[in-house]
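Researcher: Please predict.
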Amino acid sequence: MATKKKAVSVATFNLPENTASTLCYVLGWVSGLVFLLTEKKNAKVRFHAMQSVLFFGILTGITFVPVIGWLLSPFVMIVCFVVWLMAIYKTYNGEEFELPVVGKIARDQLKKIK
């Protein structure tokens, strides 16, 4: 008996949608920015790229604030690592997820630049 293959949506660089979405998180805000600038059609990949840029960009920026940022730096790095792992796992498995505050901001920003 033949099995039906699930249709795979193709995104930037001829990658499957889940792979492109996953790669948005691999190098934090840097890979998110690359996909945000190169992906023009796939809304899901653009959302994950924007979410990656905002989340990792904001938390990385916090660590540069004198004294308070330096004190919070170890906690911020742990949070970034946990969210990074979760984002990679969920996007690769095709799950829909949105980070609490950043996800809504990412959706709003994408509507503005469309």
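Model: Confidence is low (pLDDT under 50) at residues 1-5.
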